Amino acid sequence: MKSSALGNNILETEVTHISSHGIWLLTHGKELFMSYEAFPWFKDQPVKSIIKVEEQSAGHFYWPDIDVDLTEESIEHPERFPMKAAVS
Questions:
Q1: Cβ pair 11, 56 in contact under 8 A
Q2: I want to staple 43 with a disulfide (CB 3.0 to 4.6 A). Which of 15, 36, 73, 82 is the partner?
Q3: What secondary structure, in 3-state letters, does 26-41 show?
Q4: What CA–CA distance (Å, rounded) separates 23 from 14?
């Protein structure tokens, strides 16, 4: 007997790991790492706020509880985007 999958895979972007060093984001089979040094907005946030991520368009991610939006390029190459918002 062969089972077939029901429905579509709707979870294309998710936070897969949170550590003392940063966050891992899995999107479309690609894993991206965000260190707290480069992305300080996440450091002292509750887990429920970090894992609530939306992909608003291809390669554009938004965390509504933290009001942070990032592109895949800015995550892969944070050195190209040196401006950082103040962390409160």
A1: no
A2: 36
A3: EECCEEEEEECCCCHH
A4: 11
Range of the domain at 18: 13-80
**Residue 48: inside a domain:** yes
Q: What is the pTM of this model?
A: 0.78
Query: Which residue do the tokens 């940063």 mark?
Result: 22
Q: How many domains does the chain have?
A: 1
Going across the sheet that includes 54-57, the strands are 54-57, 60-63, 68-71
d(C-alpha 19, C-alpha 15), whole Å: 11
Residue-wise pLDDT tens digits, 58-81: 999 999 999 999 999 999 999 888
- Please report whether residue 88 resides in a domain: no
